[in-house]
Amino acid sequence: MHPVLLHIGNFELASYGLMTALGYVAATSYLLPRLKTCGIKGLTKDIFWNLIFIIFVGAIVGGKLLFILVSWSQLGPTLAEKLSYIVHNLRYGFVFFGGMLVAVGALIAYIRYKKLPLLKTSDFLIVGLPLGHALGRIGCFLAGCCYGKPTTLPWGVTFTDPHALVAPELIGVPLHPTQLYEAILNFALFLLLHYASKKPHKDGKILVEYVWCYALMRFGIEFLRGDFRGGFLLGMSPSQLICLAIAGVAFYVWAKFLRNEHAN
After folding, report:
1. Which residues contact 55 (CB under 8 A, 6 or more apart)?
2. Is residue 123 part of a domain?
3. 210 belongs to a structural domain
């Protein structure tokens, strides 16, 4: 599609970076006006911005680390070539689950440090995630990463730009637009959580709904992905295994904290 939107001299405006940035702006812009009415005691504007910073840094660091881990064998035959690839491709190559896991771990530590209610704060923050993620996936589509398998369906998309991150042998081949599948489903999930969060609910319910819905949709989309995503175990990709793991954690949270409690 359009991996580079603007090229002036040595400056390039990458579509992936722009859409990812817009995703953070959209999620933050959605959450900020709701800060005063979220009902979380102790959640000040300063703490909110600290949380956003933690999410931003955790997503970048974790996403890059998991990409390196699952793609290590594909980055080059020697350590020098692997490191060279990583250095020269810093703006591409991120795995969502890596960023999510690192960001979540850091958020839990900070939320507990500030003595905020963990589940209630998580419910508040999680609603903005699929909105930002939807825009980020549009960036993936423009850049050509996270592409799908070849398809004969009428909505198959063909990448022709040689700078797109599609495998060279798939340039010009109609592919499943898996990036757009996920963008549409993420936006639908955002709307679902937005309306669910307005109704009385138990603390943690919105978080559990997000995890279950995203794990289900990502597990399914993975079957249509055509890019390299690491090795497979029991026929499942690393992301599918993570989907099962986080769905299990969400079930534990539901069984322990939500099943027999009245709405707060």
Report:
1. 103, 107, 125
2. yes
3. yes
Mean pLDDT of 239-256: 88
Note whether 97 and 230 are within 8 A (CB).
no
d(CA 238, CA 43): 35
pLDDT in tens, 153-186: 999 999 998 888 888 899 999 999 999 999 999 9
> Which amino acid makes up residue 69?
L
Is the pTM value of this prediction over 0.70?
yes
CA–CA separation, 13 vs 242, rounded Å?
32
The answer to the question of residue 182 being in a domain is yes
Strand residues in the chain grouped as ranges (E): 4-8, 11-14
Angle at 214 between CA 211 and CA 218, to 5 degrees: 135
148 phi, psi to nearest 5 deg: -100, 180
Judge whether 263 lies within some domain: no
Q: How far apart are CA 162 and CA 3, in angstroms?
A: 10
Task: Work out how many domains the chain is built from and give that number.
Answer: 1
Which domain covers residue 111, as residue numbers?
A: 4-258
